[in-house]
Amino acid sequence: xxxxxxxxxxxxxxxxxxxxxxxxxxxxxxxxxxxxxxxxxxxxxxxxxxxxxxxxxxxxxxxxxxxxxxxxxxxxxxxxxxxxxxxxxxxxxxxxxxxxxxxxxxxxxxxxxxxxxxxxxxxxxxxxxxxxxxxxxxxxxxxxxxxxxxxxxxxxxxxxxxxxxxxxxxxxxxxxxxxxxxxxxxxxxxxxxxxxxxxxxxxxxxxxxxxxxxxxxxxxxxxxxxxxxxxxxxxxxxxxxxxxxxxxxxxxxxxxxxxxxxxxxxxxxxxxxxxxxxxxxxxxxxxxxxxxxxxxxxxxxxxxxxxxxxxxxxxxxxxxxxxxxxxxxxxxxxxxxxxxxxxxxxxxxxxxx
Length: 353
Fold this sequence. Notes:
This protein has 353 residues and is α/β, with parallel strands linked by helices. The chain has helices at residues 4-29, 48-58, 78-85, 100-116, 149-152, 156-165, 169-180, 196-201, 206-212, 236-252, 266-269, 274-285, 297-300, 314-325, 342-352, and strands at 65-69, 90-94, 123-128, 256-261, 290-292, 335-337.
Protein backbone atom coordinates (compact mmCIF):
# COMPACT_ATOMS: atom_id res chain seq x y z
CA UNK A 1 0.00 0.00 0.00
CA UNK A 2 1.50 3.34 -1.02
CA UNK A 3 2.38 5.86 1.63
CA UNK A 4 -0.20 8.72 1.91
CA UNK A 5 2.47 11.28 1.19
CA UNK A 6 3.49 9.44 -1.98
CA UNK A 7 -0.14 9.25 -3.06
CA UNK A 8 -0.66 13.01 -2.52
CA UNK A 9 2.52 13.87 -4.39
CA UNK A 10 1.50 11.62 -7.27
CA UNK A 11 -1.95 13.22 -7.34
CA UNK A 12 -0.46 16.72 -7.35
CA UNK A 13 2.03 15.76 -10.06
CA UNK A 14 -0.79 14.39 -12.19
CA UNK A 15 -2.87 17.54 -11.71
CA UNK A 16 0.03 19.84 -12.54
CA UNK A 17 0.91 17.64 -15.50
CA UNK A 18 -2.64 17.86 -16.85
CA UNK A 19 -2.63 21.64 -16.33
CA UNK A 20 0.72 21.99 -18.09
CA UNK A 21 -0.46 19.82 -20.97
CA UNK A 22 -3.66 21.86 -21.30
CA UNK A 23 -1.68 25.11 -21.39
CA UNK A 24 0.75 23.71 -23.97
CA UNK A 25 -2.03 22.48 -26.27
CA UNK A 26 -3.98 25.75 -25.99
CA UNK A 27 -0.88 27.75 -26.79
CA UNK A 28 0.14 25.53 -29.70
CA UNK A 29 -3.25 25.13 -31.38
CA UNK A 30 -4.54 28.57 -30.31
CA UNK A 31 -8.25 27.81 -30.97
CA UNK A 32 -9.36 31.42 -30.37
CA UNK A 33 -6.47 33.00 -32.32
CA UNK A 34 -5.19 35.02 -29.37
CA UNK A 35 -1.56 33.87 -29.09
CA UNK A 36 -0.63 34.06 -32.77
CA UNK A 37 1.24 30.76 -32.70
CA UNK A 38 2.20 29.07 -36.01
CA UNK A 39 -0.61 26.50 -36.17
CA UNK A 40 -3.35 29.07 -35.72
CA UNK A 41 -6.01 29.81 -38.29
CA UNK A 42 -8.64 32.50 -38.71
CA UNK A 43 -12.14 31.06 -38.56
CA UNK A 44 -15.44 31.38 -36.72
CA UNK A 45 -13.83 30.25 -33.44
CA UNK A 46 -11.36 33.12 -33.44
CA UNK A 47 -11.70 35.93 -30.93
CA UNK A 48 -11.65 38.84 -33.34
CA UNK A 49 -12.00 41.25 -30.43
CA UNK A 50 -8.40 40.44 -29.55
CA UNK A 51 -7.20 39.97 -33.12
CA UNK A 52 -8.43 43.38 -34.31
CA UNK A 53 -6.81 45.19 -31.38
CA UNK A 54 -3.49 43.50 -32.19
CA UNK A 55 -3.83 44.52 -35.85
CA UNK A 56 -4.48 48.11 -34.81
CA UNK A 57 -1.48 48.12 -32.48
CA UNK A 58 0.77 46.88 -35.28
CA UNK A 59 -0.08 49.94 -37.40
CA UNK A 60 -1.26 52.47 -34.80
CA UNK A 61 1.04 55.26 -36.04
CA UNK A 62 -0.53 55.17 -39.50
CA UNK A 63 -4.18 54.78 -38.53
CA UNK A 64 -6.47 57.80 -38.77
CA UNK A 65 -9.66 56.00 -39.83
CA UNK A 66 -11.79 53.35 -38.12
CA UNK A 67 -14.45 50.80 -39.06
CA UNK A 68 -16.74 49.34 -36.41
CA UNK A 69 -18.98 46.45 -37.40
CA UNK A 70 -20.04 42.90 -36.76
CA UNK A 71 -18.61 40.14 -38.94
CA UNK A 72 -20.61 41.66 -41.81
CA UNK A 73 -17.94 44.34 -41.92
CA UNK A 74 -15.36 41.85 -43.19
CA UNK A 75 -16.68 42.47 -46.68
CA UNK A 76 -15.15 45.97 -46.57
CA UNK A 77 -11.64 46.46 -47.91
CA UNK A 78 -9.65 48.68 -45.54
CA UNK A 79 -7.68 50.42 -48.29
CA UNK A 80 -10.81 51.17 -50.32
CA UNK A 81 -12.59 52.44 -47.23
CA UNK A 82 -9.66 54.71 -46.37
CA UNK A 83 -9.74 56.17 -49.87
CA UNK A 84 -13.46 56.87 -49.67
CA UNK A 85 -13.31 58.38 -46.17
CA UNK A 86 -10.26 60.50 -46.93
CA UNK A 87 -8.10 58.70 -44.36
CA UNK A 88 -4.53 57.52 -44.66
CA UNK A 89 -5.15 54.09 -43.14
CA UNK A 90 -8.20 52.40 -41.63
CA UNK A 91 -8.17 49.96 -38.72
CA UNK A 92 -11.03 47.49 -38.86
CA UNK A 93 -12.84 46.51 -35.68
CA UNK A 94 -15.22 44.03 -37.28
CA UNK A 95 -15.87 41.33 -34.71
CA UNK A 96 -18.04 38.23 -34.64
CA UNK A 97 -21.52 39.05 -33.31
CA UNK A 98 -20.27 42.57 -32.73
CA UNK A 99 -22.63 45.15 -31.27
CA UNK A 100 -22.40 48.66 -29.87
CA UNK A 101 -21.26 47.02 -26.61
CA UNK A 102 -18.09 46.04 -28.49
CA UNK A 103 -17.68 49.15 -30.61
CA UNK A 104 -17.83 51.72 -27.80
CA UNK A 105 -14.98 50.17 -25.72
CA UNK A 106 -12.88 49.85 -28.88
CA UNK A 107 -13.43 53.53 -29.74
CA UNK A 108 -12.60 54.60 -26.20
CA UNK A 109 -9.38 52.57 -26.28
CA UNK A 110 -8.25 54.02 -29.60
CA UNK A 111 -8.98 57.56 -28.42
CA UNK A 112 -6.92 57.00 -25.27
CA UNK A 113 -4.12 55.45 -27.28
CA UNK A 114 -4.09 58.27 -29.83
CA UNK A 115 -4.24 60.96 -27.15
CA UNK A 116 -1.18 59.45 -25.47
CA UNK A 117 0.74 59.89 -28.72
CA UNK A 118 -0.66 63.33 -29.51
CA UNK A 119 -2.52 61.96 -32.55
CA UNK A 120 -6.12 62.01 -33.69
CA UNK A 121 -8.62 59.95 -35.64
CA UNK A 122 -9.98 61.68 -38.71
CA UNK A 123 -12.98 59.58 -39.75
CA UNK A 124 -14.98 56.56 -38.66
CA UNK A 125 -17.69 54.32 -40.09
CA UNK A 126 -20.10 52.63 -37.69
CA UNK A 127 -22.22 49.79 -39.12
CA UNK A 128 -25.26 48.68 -37.13
CA UNK A 129 -27.23 45.48 -37.69
CA UNK A 130 -30.88 46.37 -37.15
CA UNK A 131 -31.92 42.72 -36.89
CA UNK A 132 -29.64 42.10 -33.90
CA UNK A 133 -29.85 45.55 -32.33
CA UNK A 134 -30.94 45.39 -28.70
CA UNK A 135 -30.26 41.67 -28.30
CA UNK A 136 -28.36 40.28 -25.36
CA UNK A 137 -24.78 40.99 -26.46
CA UNK A 138 -22.09 38.34 -26.80
CA UNK A 139 -19.51 40.81 -25.47
CA UNK A 140 -17.35 39.28 -22.73
CA UNK A 141 -19.63 36.22 -22.48
CA UNK A 142 -17.77 33.33 -24.12
CA UNK A 143 -14.15 32.29 -24.60
CA UNK A 144 -14.30 33.58 -28.18
CA UNK A 145 -15.78 36.96 -27.21
CA UNK A 146 -13.77 38.19 -24.22
CA UNK A 147 -12.57 41.76 -24.64
CA UNK A 148 -8.78 42.17 -24.42
CA UNK A 149 -7.45 43.90 -21.29
CA UNK A 150 -6.87 47.13 -23.23
CA UNK A 151 -10.64 47.41 -23.73
CA UNK A 152 -12.07 45.79 -20.61
CA UNK A 153 -9.61 46.97 -17.97
CA UNK A 154 -9.21 43.38 -16.82
CA UNK A 155 -5.77 42.41 -15.50
CA UNK A 156 -3.77 40.78 -18.32
CA UNK A 157 -2.76 37.85 -16.10
CA UNK A 158 -6.38 36.83 -15.54
CA UNK A 159 -7.20 37.28 -19.21
CA UNK A 160 -4.37 35.06 -20.48
CA UNK A 161 -4.83 32.51 -17.68
CA UNK A 162 -8.36 31.76 -18.89
CA UNK A 163 -7.19 31.12 -22.44
CA UNK A 164 -4.30 28.95 -21.30
CA UNK A 165 -6.22 26.77 -18.86
CA UNK A 166 -9.59 26.20 -20.52
CA UNK A 167 -10.09 22.52 -21.37
CA UNK A 168 -11.68 22.35 -24.84
CA UNK A 169 -11.07 18.85 -26.13
CA UNK A 170 -13.63 18.99 -28.94
CA UNK A 171 -12.09 22.18 -30.26
CA UNK A 172 -8.60 20.69 -30.18
CA UNK A 173 -9.79 17.58 -31.97
CA UNK A 174 -11.48 19.65 -34.68
CA UNK A 175 -8.35 21.71 -35.30
CA UNK A 176 -6.11 18.64 -35.49
CA UNK A 177 -8.55 16.93 -37.89
CA UNK A 178 -8.66 20.07 -40.01
CA UNK A 179 -4.87 20.24 -40.21
CA UNK A 180 -4.55 16.51 -40.80
CA UNK A 181 -6.90 16.75 -43.78
CA UNK A 182 -4.70 19.43 -45.31
CA UNK A 183 -6.91 22.39 -44.44
CA UNK A 184 -5.26 25.78 -44.27
CA UNK A 185 -6.37 29.18 -43.22
CA UNK A 186 -10.07 29.60 -43.69
CA UNK A 187 -10.99 31.82 -46.57
CA UNK A 188 -14.22 33.43 -47.58
CA UNK A 189 -15.91 32.74 -50.87
CA UNK A 190 -14.67 35.17 -53.47
CA UNK A 191 -16.97 37.93 -54.59
CA UNK A 192 -18.27 37.73 -58.15
CA UNK A 193 -16.07 39.73 -60.47
CA UNK A 194 -18.45 42.55 -61.27
CA UNK A 195 -17.31 45.89 -62.61
CA UNK A 196 -18.67 48.41 -60.10
CA UNK A 197 -19.12 51.06 -62.79
CA UNK A 198 -21.09 48.70 -65.04
CA UNK A 199 -23.24 47.55 -62.16
CA UNK A 200 -24.07 51.01 -60.89
CA UNK A 201 -24.86 52.41 -64.33
CA UNK A 202 -26.80 49.48 -65.75
CA UNK A 203 -29.92 50.04 -63.68
CA UNK A 204 -29.56 46.48 -62.42
CA UNK A 205 -31.47 45.19 -65.39
CA UNK A 206 -31.63 41.55 -66.45
CA UNK A 207 -28.40 41.21 -68.46
CA UNK A 208 -25.94 42.31 -65.79
CA UNK A 209 -27.60 40.39 -62.98
CA UNK A 210 -28.14 37.17 -64.91
CA UNK A 211 -24.55 37.17 -66.11
CA UNK A 212 -23.20 37.65 -62.60
CA UNK A 213 -25.63 35.43 -60.72
CA UNK A 214 -27.74 32.73 -62.34
CA UNK A 215 -29.60 31.82 -59.14
CA UNK A 216 -31.97 33.72 -56.94
CA UNK A 217 -33.39 32.96 -53.54
CA UNK A 218 -37.12 32.36 -53.46
CA UNK A 219 -38.58 32.58 -49.95
CA UNK A 220 -41.41 30.37 -48.81
CA UNK A 221 -44.92 31.72 -49.21
CA UNK A 222 -45.79 30.34 -45.79
CA UNK A 223 -45.33 33.32 -43.50
CA UNK A 224 -44.33 32.57 -39.91
CA UNK A 225 -47.15 32.89 -37.40
CA UNK A 226 -45.29 35.53 -35.40
CA UNK A 227 -42.73 37.98 -36.80
CA UNK A 228 -39.68 38.79 -34.69
CA UNK A 229 -39.90 42.22 -33.08
CA UNK A 230 -36.80 44.29 -32.34
CA UNK A 231 -38.64 47.03 -30.45
CA UNK A 232 -39.64 44.63 -27.68
CA UNK A 233 -36.06 43.71 -26.76
CA UNK A 234 -35.18 44.81 -23.20
CA UNK A 235 -31.69 46.03 -24.16
CA UNK A 236 -32.86 48.30 -26.96
CA UNK A 237 -33.02 51.52 -24.93
CA UNK A 238 -29.62 50.84 -23.35
CA UNK A 239 -28.06 50.22 -26.75
CA UNK A 240 -29.54 53.44 -28.10
CA UNK A 241 -27.89 55.26 -25.19
CA UNK A 242 -24.56 53.61 -26.03
CA UNK A 243 -24.89 54.77 -29.64
CA UNK A 244 -25.53 58.30 -28.35
CA UNK A 245 -22.36 58.05 -26.23
CA UNK A 246 -20.43 56.79 -29.26
CA UNK A 247 -21.66 59.71 -31.35
CA UNK A 248 -20.82 62.21 -28.60
CA UNK A 249 -17.26 60.89 -28.31
CA UNK A 250 -16.75 61.26 -32.04
CA UNK A 251 -18.09 64.80 -31.96
CA UNK A 252 -15.92 65.78 -28.99
CA UNK A 253 -12.81 64.43 -30.70
CA UNK A 254 -13.46 65.96 -34.11
CA UNK A 255 -14.10 62.62 -35.83
CA UNK A 256 -16.12 62.68 -39.03
CA UNK A 257 -18.58 59.89 -38.22
CA UNK A 258 -20.71 58.04 -40.76
CA UNK A 259 -23.35 55.62 -39.49
CA UNK A 260 -25.14 53.03 -41.59
CA UNK A 261 -27.34 50.00 -41.19
CA UNK A 262 -26.40 46.76 -42.94
CA UNK A 263 -28.57 45.10 -45.62
CA UNK A 264 -30.29 41.76 -45.07
CA UNK A 265 -30.94 38.88 -47.44
CA UNK A 266 -34.60 38.16 -48.11
CA UNK A 267 -34.78 34.95 -46.10
CA UNK A 268 -33.46 36.77 -43.04
CA UNK A 269 -35.51 39.94 -43.38
CA UNK A 270 -38.57 37.72 -43.94
CA UNK A 271 -38.39 36.75 -40.26
CA UNK A 272 -38.95 40.32 -39.08
CA UNK A 273 -41.84 42.75 -39.15
CA UNK A 274 -40.90 45.40 -41.77
CA UNK A 275 -42.73 48.14 -39.91
CA UNK A 276 -40.88 47.23 -36.72
CA UNK A 277 -37.50 47.39 -38.47
CA UNK A 278 -38.36 50.78 -39.95
CA UNK A 279 -39.32 52.02 -36.51
CA UNK A 280 -35.95 50.92 -35.08
CA UNK A 281 -34.17 52.81 -37.87
CA UNK A 282 -36.31 55.84 -37.06
CA UNK A 283 -35.37 55.61 -33.40
CA UNK A 284 -31.70 55.43 -34.38
CA UNK A 285 -32.15 58.49 -36.60
CA UNK A 286 -33.23 60.46 -33.53
CA UNK A 287 -29.73 59.82 -32.16
CA UNK A 288 -27.64 60.33 -35.29
CA UNK A 289 -28.18 60.81 -39.04
CA UNK A 290 -27.63 57.48 -40.74
CA UNK A 291 -27.68 55.62 -44.03
CA UNK A 292 -30.46 53.06 -44.15
CA UNK A 293 -29.39 50.17 -46.38
CA UNK A 294 -32.60 48.19 -46.48
CA UNK A 295 -31.89 45.83 -49.38
CA UNK A 296 -34.11 46.21 -52.45
CA UNK A 297 -35.50 43.05 -54.02
CA UNK A 298 -32.85 42.76 -56.74
CA UNK A 299 -30.19 42.56 -54.01
CA UNK A 300 -32.04 40.80 -51.20
CA UNK A 301 -33.16 37.87 -53.39
CA UNK A 302 -29.99 37.37 -55.44
CA UNK A 303 -27.73 34.76 -53.82
CA UNK A 304 -24.66 35.84 -55.79
CA UNK A 305 -24.40 38.92 -53.56
CA UNK A 306 -24.30 36.88 -50.35
CA UNK A 307 -21.91 34.45 -48.66
CA UNK A 308 -24.75 33.18 -46.47
CA UNK A 309 -28.06 34.40 -45.07
CA UNK A 310 -26.33 37.03 -42.94
CA UNK A 311 -23.12 38.08 -44.73
CA UNK A 312 -22.95 40.04 -47.97
CA UNK A 313 -20.05 39.93 -50.41
CA UNK A 314 -17.45 42.67 -51.04
CA UNK A 315 -19.35 43.88 -54.12
CA UNK A 316 -22.19 44.94 -51.80
CA UNK A 317 -19.75 46.71 -49.48
CA UNK A 318 -18.34 48.57 -52.48
CA UNK A 319 -21.82 49.68 -53.50
CA UNK A 320 -22.47 50.89 -49.95
CA UNK A 321 -19.28 52.96 -50.03
CA UNK A 322 -20.19 54.42 -53.39
CA UNK A 323 -23.61 55.37 -52.06
CA UNK A 324 -22.21 57.03 -48.93
CA UNK A 325 -19.02 58.60 -50.29
CA UNK A 326 -19.17 58.39 -54.08
CA UNK A 327 -21.42 59.08 -57.03
CA UNK A 328 -21.74 55.73 -58.83
CA UNK A 329 -24.37 54.02 -56.72
CA UNK A 330 -27.87 52.70 -57.43
CA UNK A 331 -30.44 55.18 -56.21
CA UNK A 332 -32.71 52.51 -54.73
CA UNK A 333 -29.99 51.13 -52.44
CA UNK A 334 -29.38 53.25 -49.37
CA UNK A 335 -31.31 56.26 -48.14
CA UNK A 336 -29.98 58.99 -45.89
CA UNK A 337 -32.13 59.38 -42.77
CA UNK A 338 -31.50 62.83 -41.27
CA UNK A 339 -31.64 63.19 -37.54
CA UNK A 340 -35.23 63.35 -36.41
CA UNK A 341 -36.32 65.04 -33.23
CA UNK A 342 -39.41 63.88 -31.38
CA UNK A 343 -41.38 66.96 -32.47
CA UNK A 344 -40.57 66.25 -36.13
CA UNK A 345 -41.68 62.66 -35.75
CA UNK A 346 -44.97 63.67 -34.10
CA UNK A 347 -45.65 66.24 -36.83
CA UNK A 348 -44.89 63.68 -39.53
CA UNK A 349 -47.30 61.14 -38.06
CA UNK A 350 -49.97 63.80 -37.62
CA UNK A 351 -49.69 64.79 -41.31
CA UNK A 352 -49.92 61.13 -42.35
CA UNK A 353 -53.02 60.70 -40.23
